[in-house]
């Protein structure tokens, strides 16, 4: 999986990426570590205990709980002064019921962004799905704390970190789109709507998609081990993107990257089963970050008390660092 020659060159690029970053002044160069530290386990936990609570009724697409979810996400962007790319105060990309199957009501993606300081037309998308599967027949709520509450709150924290950098004069060179998609559990509908029907930013200007779907738990394979993530799709379209991900990890975190589900013959076919795929099919380089399935996957027992918040904090910081590198390097990662 690793291509050593490219890895060495990309590692050098990561080490020296400050050459492409904005400077606070003539002597000090921005460091992503300063802003990554604003992503904390305590804030992730506070948000997730609300977002994955019974009040949100399992966040089923088109249902009242999903409407609470989008208002929750919007509230955080408004409070932190992070703008919408659609229109001032309008964070919702509306998707009509006719787009969904089986009588699903109208639904919404939630979009926020930070405009790039030097190459604003080039976009890094960080995505996660905001929906889950609703309420069981017996009234129990499918809380979806890991799936995908973990990705949702991680993106909000990353957005706050990028905003803090912008306020300090260290904003990203390229624009960052924080994309919360609906309808994933129905079949990737929200991301498909954005990519196929109404891309707010032209797809040809989209540099990469970092997609987060379940990053708060530990699967059976990794119990008792060090922090890890499954990476899926990182080398499918851009070897350079894969090597950037590896170099960032080795420089800052040293998590175990597991590529089991990236194999072409993966029987789970996870590469095709989350929202990154709707960008990959348009030849946009992608990484799908995933902690693997567990006993509570798609059960009412996927609750926030079972999240490993220290692991979640580190994983979110890792993705933030990767987005930072992609946003600030001199050249966009190349397709090969």
Report on this structure.
The protein has helices at 4-15, 32-36, 41-51, 64-79, 145-167, 184-187, 189-197, 239-252, 277-280, 309-328, and strands at 92-95, 107-114, 119-129, 174-181, 206-212, 228-232, 256-258, 286-290. The protein has 336 residues and is of the alpha/beta class. It has an eight-stranded mixed sheet, with helices on both faces. Helix 1 (4-15) crosses helix 8 and helix 8 packs across helix 10. The radius of gyration is 19 Å and the shape is globular. The two termini are 15 Å apart. Residues 1-9 and 15-28 have low confidence and may be disordered. Residues 109-321 form the Peptidase M28 domain. It comes from Tamlana crocina. This is M28 family peptidase.
Short description:
This protein is of the alpha/beta class and 336 residues long. The chain has helices spanning 4-15, 32-36, 41-51, 64-79, 145-167, 184-187, 189-197, 239-252, 277-280, 309-328, and strands at 92-95, 107-114, 119-129, 174-181, 206-212, 228-232, 256-258, 286-290.
Relevant terms:
35% helix, alpha/beta, 336 residues, disordered N terminus, Aminopeptidase
Provide the fold topology.
Elements: H1 4-15, H2 32-36, H3 41-51, H4 64-79, E1 92-95, E2 107-114, E3 119-129, H5 145-167, E4 174-181, H6 184-187, H7 189-197, E5 206-212, E6 228-232, H8 239-252, E7 256-258, H9 277-280, E8 286-290, H10 309-328
Parallel strand pairs: 3-4, 3-5, 5-8, 6-7
Antiparallel strand pairs: 1-2, 2-4, 6-8
Helix pairs in contact: 1-8, 3-5, 3-10, 5-10, 8-10
């Amino acid at each position: 999986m690793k291509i050593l020659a490219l890895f060495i060159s990309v590692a050098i690029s990561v080490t020296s990426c400050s050459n492409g970053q904005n400077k606070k002044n003539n002597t000090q160069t921005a460091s992503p570590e300063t802003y990554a530290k604003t992503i904390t386990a305590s804030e992730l936990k506070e948000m997730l205990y609300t977002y994955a609570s019974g009040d949100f009724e399992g966040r089923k697409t088109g249902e009242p709980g999903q409407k609470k979810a989008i208002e929750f996400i919007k509230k955080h962007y408004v409070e932190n002064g992070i703008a919408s790319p659609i229109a001032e105060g309008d964070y919702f990309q509306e998707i009509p019921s006719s787009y969904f199957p089986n009588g699903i009501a109208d639904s919404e993606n939630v979009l926020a962004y930070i405009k790039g300081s030097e190459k604003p037309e080039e976009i890094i998308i960080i995505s996660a799905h905001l929906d889950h599967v609703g309420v069981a027949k017996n009234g129990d709520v499918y809380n979806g704390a890991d799936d995908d509450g973990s990705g949702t709150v991680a993106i909000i924290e990353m957005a706050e970190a990028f905003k803090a950098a912008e306020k300090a004069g260290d904003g990203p060179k390229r624009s960052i789109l924080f994309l919360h998609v609906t309808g994933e559990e129905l079949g990737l509908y929200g991301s498909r709507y954005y990519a196929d029907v109404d891309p707010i930013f032209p797809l040809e200007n989209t540099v990469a998609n970092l997609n987060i779907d379940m990053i708060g738990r530990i699967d059976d394979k990794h119990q008792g081990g060090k922090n890890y993530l499954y990476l899926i799709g990182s080398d499918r379209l851009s070897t350079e993107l894969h090597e950037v991900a590896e170099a960032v990890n080795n420089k800052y975190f040293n998590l175990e990257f597991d590529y089991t589900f990236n194999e072409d013959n993966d029987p789970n076919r996870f590469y095709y089963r989350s929202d990154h795929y709707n960008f990959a099919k348009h030849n946009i380089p992608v990484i799908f970050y995933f902690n693997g399935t567990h006993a509570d996957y798609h059960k009412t027992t996927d609750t926030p008390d079972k999240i490993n918040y220290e692991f979640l904090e580190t994983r979110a910081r890792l993705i933030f660092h990767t987005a930072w590198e992609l946003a600030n390097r001199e050249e966009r990662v190349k397709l090969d």
